[in-house]
Amino acid sequence: ETGVTQTPRHLVMGMTNKKSLKCEQHLGHNAMYWYKQSAKKPLELMFVYSLEERVENNSVPSRFSPECPNSSHLFLHLHTLQPEDSALYLCASSARSSMNTEAFFGQGTRLTVV
Amino acid sequence: AQTVTQSQPEMSVQEAETVTLSCTYDTSESDYYLFWYKQPPSRQMILVIRQEAYKQQNATENRFSVNFQKAAKSFSLKISDSQLGDAAMYFCAYSGGSQGNLIFGKGTKLSVKP
Lengths: 114, 114
Prior knowledge:
Number of helices of chain B: 0
Helix content of chain B: under 10%
Number of strands of chain B: 12
Strand content of chain A: over 45%
Shape of chain B: globular
Distance between the termini of chain B: 41 Å
Oligomer: heterodimer
Order of helices and strands of chain A: EEEEEEEEEEE
Low-confidence stretches of chain B: none
Number of helices of chain A: 0
Largest sheet of chain B: 6 strands, mixed
Order of helices and strands of chain B: EEEEEEEEEEEE
Mean pLDDT of chain B: 92
Mean pLDDT of chain A: 89
Largest interface: A-B, 25 and 28 residues
Distance between the termini of chain A: 31 Å
Radius of gyration of chain B: 14 Å
Radius of gyration of chain A: 13 Å
């Protein structure tokens, strides 16, 4: 266990559904991240939150909407997804958004869009 | 833009033997960090080892060591006395620049044969 918890572990949703992924950390970190992991592709950084403020959005489609209500929680709201959005979504946190800080990852949510 | 390349999609090693995983990267930054992360089948990514670019001495963590060649922009991971529990996906990652976000390679799947 790394101290970062993601729920649900698995999610199957239709293209017209709305769902949310949840990430929680109680490590005292103030930076949180969403990554997308697809087969045979590098991990793609989607969003970065530092001190509850979004500091990066890597050209992610608007059907993905992040929310960071406090430094311990991060959500990814999903709506009208496409089959190509099926992937493993990883949440991570670090003490701060800087280059020498180790990131701690959750176990991920395996998302399947049908 | 920074990139990380892992040219070996899969590697295999006999238990108790040594294996080296390759990683190259591209950056114009002079100050940065490099990481190797391990993702076992349980999916939770954990940090294996970290190297600071301004340090010439190669990092070592028990059976894991790196060969950092800054001029060649190469950062390989050596696993000595391989164990069955070392079987996992290994990701090379770079962090540098003003934001310091982690940039990952595609990963190398390591199998350990008994």
